[in-house]
Amino acid sequence: MSSHTRSITRLGRTAVAVLAGALALSACQSVSPSASTGSTDSVDDGTTITMWTRSSTSTFSQTLVDAYNASHKNKVKLTVFPADSYQQKVGTAAGARQLPDVLASDVVYAPNYAAKGGVFLDITDRVNQLPFKAALAPSHMKAATHDGRIFAVPHDLDLSALFYNKVLFTRAGLDPNKPPTTLAEVAADAKKISALGGGVGGYFFGGACPGCQLFTSWPMIWASGGTVLNAQGTASTIDNPTAAKVYGLLRQMYDDGSVPVSAKNESGPTWGQAFADGRIGIEPMGATALQGLKEGPGLQVGVAPIPGLTGGTSSFVGGDVLGIGADSKHVAEAWNFISWTLSEQAQVQVVAKSKNVTVRSDLIDNTYAKQDPRLGVFNRLPGIGQTPISVNFGQTFNDPDGPWTEAVIDAVFGKGDVETILQQHNSSITQSLSTSG
Amino acid sequence: MISLSSPTRSPAPASPAPTARRAPISRGRRRLGILYVAPMTLLVAVLFVIPLGLMVWMSFNHWPLLGASAPNGVTDYQALRDPLFIRAVWFTLKYTAVTTVVLGLIAFGLALLMHQDRRRIGTYRTVLFLPSAVGLASTSLLFYGLFNADGSPLNNLVRAIGLGHVDWLGSTGNALGSTVLMITWRFAGFYMLILMTGLQSIDPALYEAARIDGANRWQTMWRVTLPLLRPTIALTMVLSVTGSLLAFDQFFILTGGRHYTATVVIDIYREAFLSQDLGRAAAVSVATLVVLVIVNVVQMRLIRREGR
Amino acid sequence: MVTRTRSAGFHVTGLALAVLFLLPLLWTLYSSLNGPEAANGKQGFGVANYRRLIGYGNGLPTYLLNTALVAVIAVTVTVVTTTLAGYAMARLPFRGRNLLFIVTLAILMVPYTTILVPLYILLGWIGLQNSLVGLALVLAVLQMPFGLFMMRNSFTALPVELEEAALIDGCTVGGALRRVLLRGVLPGIVTVALFSFLAAWNEFVAPLIFLTDGSRFTLPLALFDLQSGSLGSVDYGALQAGVVTSALPCVAVFLVLQRYYVRGFTSGALKG
Predict the structure, then answer these.
(1) Is C202 exposed, middle or buried, given 0-12, 13-18 or 19+ CB atoms closer than 10 A?
(2) Cβ atoms within 10 Å, residue A134
């Protein structure tokens, strides 16, 4: 027994020594950030900081990260996670105190992360020092603020809009400069385009992708005067006749063959692929998609606001917010990167140049926006669009196993009256929204 | 090659090893025994016994993923009344029933076929068993490609024989069918092997006797093979039922729980890391555990009784 | 005549079944190497899928190394602890032996996916969250019931005289275990190692929950990310190459060591 006990004691002593060392280390490290709290000055000494984002908007983030790495000694290492499992990843990492230094989050999850704590660091003081604070996209700022404290800043504005292929419009005998202004026109144009045959579809959506569906179909409801959520984000109001007409129309387009059958199982990863290949006439997508589309003889991209049933326009003001991970050891460096992404240099020479919408309203009239009329269309959308705010948004709407997924799949691909289907699912959505987690 | 030709030794009973040796056991040896089991005991205690206790404790606490926990009685067990959970239970039961029946019948057929003395039989056995060496996650990804890629050999084949576009995973029924197909491919050889070990342990003299009594093949099957194989069949049932009730990888990868195909374990995962409520996840885990232990004990009892 | 027709019938059936069971694997192997994706846009064979796979995320070498590390630690820990414990169970009576045996076997009764959540918390307490070592230790514990059962039976089956002879020759108990007995139970050890390797290499749920850092992902996790289209589209070619890469070691190890696998079945200690 004695040798056994001795080895345990030795082990214990080693453990204590290691523990003490770790404590000393973390104590040292916690000094520097608090000392420099509120400062936005450059802390650019070759530190590597980590950043996470979800797959859907990763191209945008990568562009910014590359530009930052090229002009700074500090290096940002971006890790991209599947959009479907991003919430779980952030959740487990937060529980394990393993979050990255810089964390991007879908704007719809931001209220949850701001309210729960332990995900984002409170950066109120730093944000308040930004001279252009008032110009930052208000929808994103609202989502990232809880009890007057700010936890993140806008990263990208992903505004849903109709994308259409002018080449296919011309081929189908439609005017490429007259995009549809009502959903009825969308359906009619789509039908004409799909009649071209040869693997061409009129319209496309991610039928098994709950996030894609709400991102593109809710603006149709809003533009038609309907609602989807109550103001507090605690109850679903999707059981209205307007919403039923919108999903009825999507179902009709799928049933009459305007939409390729592959749309039914499109769970998100490839929902923009067919449009990018020039095989789709009209598809509502996010503004950040424009950057990745390669135009050519088969694809000329036009954009227009998403219309309602008989007119009107709206948009889902989505995208991501950017904050500092709650346990970051490189707070100053992380803020150096984040504040740089908001600078005029980054917003105009990187963001706008790569055909994206700036998150600062004071920079809307930049040179690149003037050159490309499509950016002009996008820039008007924040004014007419909405960002739904709800603490339980992710688990209710974005989870492929959540109540919204089955509701929208049933409504679009099911049989039976659409309004009845929406009414059946409405209560389970509300229940999921109202449970306190 | 898998031969299995040598007479199989019956499984050693799970009773403690014989302590027949009367020689005085020195204190040193006893101490040495404790020393030798210490590493395993430590790991089992830390990574099994403590988590088990912790799970029960967590289920009586409000235990968010982030932030402090506090006891909250049996509130967490309301997770068992959640409609999503109840739906997951029904789907899991349905999946378990279908898988166990389909897999059991096919594996039994394969075992009868492959339980013969023939040339090159070993090669066949090896091939049938090969899928079992591939991980379940890899299998799911493999079939995901076959099901979803438009130009996959499977979809080309289906088109070539005139079935057109098959929506492999697009509804509850299709996803269930496709998954059972995949699971059968992955596990049939595995269960075949277990059933073959059972067949091997049947005394050939009994078949001989049946033949002399003029029994035909069906009679031999019903009167000799099946009764004697019951313990083995029961064992495969235990494995298949337990495995199916805990299904996760296949549905997580193939459907992500879409089309009402979330299983109980996916629900636990959802409660824990999506709703960020570890307490409710623990409550569901405790309930699942209790049910499974009961199922296992009942089935083991059956095996033991039949075994005599 | 009759027997020959029946024999032919058997071989036809057997061959058909063999093709059916090999087909998905061969299809995947084939399409990972053939087609425009594999051959840089041309028809025919090529390794472009594997090239893209190697460059995916943190790089295939990282994922392979992580997976191998987890497997090696899990196998080593399982083999060492259960060999020692199996010997003690068979030959060195001590108090609490039966209790320990029952508790260890109870691991089989408790579906491990249900204790993953508390395990996740516990690993956090001992500083092993998001750690390959922590993951490997958990996977080792899951293999302990089978390992212990196997090793105890292996030692029990060895004649006691073997050990006595070694003791008379002047070996200590430890020396006897090392020199004489280990050789005798080597088949058992290989069986335990094989089962433990296959389980650790292929594990999906535990790393999904325990690992958060992309640079520590194991191969199945990286492939899952690949399938979920981390970079805007699903690269089926690279995915198929990944499935082949992850399955190949298991198939190879299994083909070489299959008689030990069968031993695992006949020993009566099983877990699906």
Answers:
(1) buried
(2) 11
Q: Which two tokens stand for residue C123?
A: 């690993």
Mutant choice from C7, C101, C117 vs B, greatest count of B C-beta within 10 A: C117
Measured distance CA(A138)–CA(A163) in Å, rounded: 25
Tell me which chain A residues have a C-beta less than 8 angstroms from the C-beta of B277.
Answer: 437
**pTM for this prediction:** 0.83
The one-digit pLDDT tens for each residue of chain B (308 residues) are: 334 333 333 344 444 444 444 445 577 777 888 899 999 999 999 999 999 999 999 999 998 887 778 899 899 999 999 888 999 999 999 999 999 999 999 999 999 998 887 878 888 989 999 999 999 999 999 999 899 877 788 888 888 988 888 889 888 899 999 999 999 999 999 999 889 888 888 888 888 888 888 888 888 888 888 888 888 888 888 889 888 998 999 999 998 888 889 999 999 988 888 888 889 999 999 999 899 888 888 877 776 665 44
CA distance C262 to chain A (A): 38
Q: Do C204 and B239 touch (CB under 8 A)?
A: no
What are the residues of chain A with a beta carbon less than 8 Å away from any beta carbon of chain C?
Answer: 55-56, 58-59, 79-85, 89, 92-93, 95-98, 268-270, 272-273, 292
User: What are the residues facing A105 on neighbouring strands?
Assistant: A321
Interface contact flag, A4 B84, Cβ < 8 Å? no
Rounded CA-CA distance C95/B33 in Å is: 9
List chain B residues with CB under 8 Å of C206: none
- Going by C-alpha positions, the residue among A358, C26, C50 that lies closest to residue B146 is C26
CA-based nearest residue to B235, from B40, B10, B73: B10
Q: Which of residues 248-267 of B touch A (CB under 8 A)?
A: 255-260, 262, 266
